[in-house]
Amino acid sequence: MNRLTIVAAFGLLSATSSSPAWAGSGPAEHEHEHETEVFSAGEPGDEAKPSRVVQVTMQESDGKMLFVPNHVEVRKGEQIKFVIHNNGELDHEFVLATAQGNEKHAEAMKRNPEMEHHDPNATRVSPKKTDEIIWNFTNAGKFEFACLIPGHRDAGMFGSVEVK
């Protein structure tokens, strides 16, 4: 391979590696490169290790969208299995990050409303369905879980995780 071919291949790789992965003809799926990604709230959990189960319900009520509960307290180093029930009539997401990170990502979702999350720290749940996220909270601090589908976070669909 000559130098020009190598430079062109590297440029193409660089341009495509930071783009979201598209499924089908549009921006239906958003994925991260997990090997290099650092998560603010810790790291993906291990199904083989013990977890405390936290049930979370997503719903719409009186023009608001919400999580019940909307606040969870965790010890640093604790592994949590979030069992996420969508009792609503619409798709909802559970995305765990910092509030600032979720705000920034919500803005990107407004530009790409068909983007869906199925990452270690996020999932989209269809109406009347349930999903799970297992998370190891290795970092102390205050974090947020939110639905980043356009308009949902603004309608109140966010909660907090306090890691002590």
Mean pLDDT: 80
Number of strands: 11
Shape estimate: globular
- Overall domain count: 1
Looking at the structure, the CATH topology is Immunoglobulin-like
- Report the order of strands and helices: HEEEEEEHEEEEE
The H-level CATH homologous superfamily, spelled out, is Cupredoxins -  blue copper proteins
Query: What is the CATH top level name?
Result: Mainly Beta
Percent strand equals: 35-45%
Q: State the major sheet.
A: 6 strands, mixed
In the sheet with the most strands, the strands line up as 4-11-10-6-8-7
**N-to-C CA distance:** 54 Å
Q: Number of DSSP helices?
A: 2
Structural class: alpha+beta
What are the segments in which pLDDT stays under 50 over at least 5 consecutive residues?
1-36
Report the helical percentage.
10-25%
The CATH level-2 architecture is identified as Sandwich
Computed over alpha carbons, the radius of gyration is 18 Å
Description:
The structure is a single chain. The chain is an alpha+beta fold and 164 residues long. The protein has two helices and eleven strands. The strands form two sheets. Strands 4-11-10-6-8-7 form a six-stranded mixed sheet, with helices on one face. Strands 1-9-5-2-3 form a five-stranded mixed sheet, with no helix packed on it. The longest helix has 15 residues, at 3-17. 30% of the residues are buried.
Summarize the structure.
The chain has about 160 residues and is α+β, with helices and mostly antiparallel strands. The protein contains 2 helices and 11 strands; from the N terminus they run αββββββαβββββ. It has helices at about 5-15, 100-110; strands at about 45, 50-60, 65-70, 70-75, 80-85, 90-95, 120, 120-125, 130-135, 140-145, 160-164.
